[in-house]
Amino acid sequence: MKDHQCYSPETHLLSTAQIKALPDDRVRVLVSACLAGQVTTWDAQPLGMLPILEHFLALPQVEKCTFCPEEYSFGTPREMSNCYGGNGFDVLDGRAKILTDTGVDWTEGMVRAAHAMAARAAEQKVDLAILLNISAACGTQTIYDGHRDDKNYQRGPGVAAAALIRAGIPVLSNRDLKTMAALVKRYDPSFEAPEGLIDLHEHPWYKETFGA
Predict the structure, then answer these.
(1) DSSP reduced 3-state for 32
(2) Reduced to 3 states, what is the DSSP secondary structure of residue 76?
(3) CA distance 136 to 139
(4) What is the pTM of this model?
(5) Which residue in 43, 111, 38, 46 sits closest to 78, CA to CA?
(6) Contact criterion met (CB below 8 Å) for 196 and 177
(7) Confidence band (pLDDT; 50, 70, 90) for 174?
């Protein structure tokens, strides 16, 4: 577990005030393609959809666009990859690498895909992004530090998430359920969230792992 750049997940999640300030009639959302039901995972298997995310994306005020940075550069199916030597910010700044399970250096392709995702966000004028947690591309709060089988984790985003954060776009993961519920409630006042929803950085595992 390492911190290669000072990182606070609360900085990049939408605050209550930011959610309230979102447009009433239309909110534009960039979503990791795999979370929106597209088959873009490394092994070409569907992930399914979280019920709360499915509810949000189905709301008439929500205009979604999807993107998979890894498919953009490497296709589907593909090898799995992880960050070595830092998080997504470090990869963007040339201090860390993206390597596949067989040791192939995918750094250049991942950086190119990250910038393409940020460009898509700008083109679509998105208000926020909902991304796949722990992915070397789309992880928002924590990713693997080296090979996933070693079970070493580091705080910070993946490469594409880092590019979005630097572009000023709020990001949340599929595990930020409290914030996601607040978004649903913003556009569907009749929605009643299940009790006890928390965001990833509030989870006991996260606190135990990172001492947060």
Answers:
(1) strand
(2) coil
(3) 6
(4) 0.93
(5) 43
(6) no
(7) very high
